[in-house]
Amino acid sequence: MQGALTQLHVVHALLLRETKTRFGVDKLGYLWAIIEPALWIGMFAGFYHYYGHLTTPGMNIVAFVAAGIVPFSLFRDTAGRCMAAISSNLGLLFYPQVRPLDLVIARAILEFVTSLIVMALFMGGIALWNGSTNIENWLEAVGGMALAAGLGASFGLLACGLSVYSQNVERLVPTLLRPLMWFSAVFHPVDAVPRAYREFLLWNPLVHAIEMVRDGWFPGYNARHIDPWYPMLCMLVMSFFGLTLERMTRRHLEIS
């Protein structure tokens, strides 16, 4: 119990430090967390509107794009920041209470909370624009966001352990994640994909998380192909290998 309380205090202190480092001391840093996804959403929503891209009838195009980009950005940013947790905070590991896992946990929590706030602001803004709050299932939408964060954190933890042994990992992973946006059903519903390609698409666990967000957000949206247990299984597998590497990393850092 004492060890758990100590770790909670360490994670809390790291979380405060990461918040100040990530967003800075002024309000502009916090504002940028909203502006960046808003630019992406506005760009793609405008592009689809101009070219007559159709979503499910009755579904707002901005809301649909936001429901894809925000959870994908959550996964990508969580994975990237968790992967660089050790290399960015090597000095903190000289303190005996701080472990590599604490750095990863603090960064994952910060990304999850930030994305939830961004998603809530977009939901609220779109509800004001439409004149009504049309949310089918808040719990399912938040669950999809949690799955996206968990996938990013577990993948980031795995990459973080590997990056201690090879610096090429931090260069390679962002390159691999960039094209993933086009294979995660960010801009189209899974039902709109031809069956042969859909079966391939559903092997991506992030697709299930994004579809969960949409299924919870939009009334009448039927995400009949999702299976929340599949991304959870992927999280467990990556977490197992990531935690194993984290243990090995502790010894490697202590020796070096």
Can you summarize this structure?
With 256 residues, this protein is mostly helical. The chain has helices spanning 2-23, 27-50, 61-83, 85-88, 100-130, 138-165, 168-177, 195-201, 205-217, 229-255.
Tell me the distance between the termini.
Answer: 30 Å
Number of strands: 0
Give the overall pLDDT as a whole number: 85
Radius of gyration: 19 Å
Number of helices: 10
Strand content: under 5%
| H/E element order | HHHHHHHHHH
Shape: globular
Detail the poorly predicted runs.
Answer: none
The largest sheet is: none
Class computed from helices, strands and strand pairing: mainly alpha
Proportion of residues in helical segments: over 70%
Would you write up a description of this structure?
It is a single chain. The protein has 256 residues and is mostly helical. Helices cover 74% and strands 0% of the residues. The protein is built from 10 helices and no strands. It has helices spanning 2-23, 27-50, 61-83, 85-88, 100-130, 138-165, 168-177, 195-201, 205-217, 229-255. Helix 2 (27-50) crosses helix 3 (61-83) and helix 5 runs antiparallel to helix 6.
Mind sketching the topology for me?
Blueprint: H1 2-23, H2 27-50, H3 61-83, H4 85-88, H5 100-130, H6 138-165, H7 168-177, H8 195-201, H9 205-217, H10 229-255
Helix pairs in contact: 1-5, 2-3, 3-5, 3-6, 3-9, 5-6, 6-7, 6-9, 6-10, 9-10
Considering the chains and any ligands shown, give keywords for the structure:
74% helix; mainly alpha; single chain; globular; 10 helices; 256 residues
